[in-house]
Amino acid sequence: MRVMNMGRERKFKVPSIPSTTSKCIRFPNNIIEEVEQAIQGKECTFSAFVIEATRLALEDLKDPEG
After folding, report:
1. Which of 2, 14, 6 is nearest to 58 (CA)?
2. Is 50 exposed, middle or buried (CB count within 10 Å of its CB: 0-12, 13-18, 19+)?
3. Tell me: the pLDDT tens digits for 7-16?
């Protein structure tokens, strides 16, 4: 399976579970509510959603047009 990401083709790799560190952060209540609505009925946790959103934001920051 090949995926396009910012104009670059990437080959799918089976992910490994990275080591983790617990961080306590505060979210505005409305953001928590929106995330919980977005993941309702899906096999996704709040943490998984935030991690993926953070990854995407970091990729966007690497984009010279971003």
Report:
1. 6
2. middle
3. 667 677 777 8
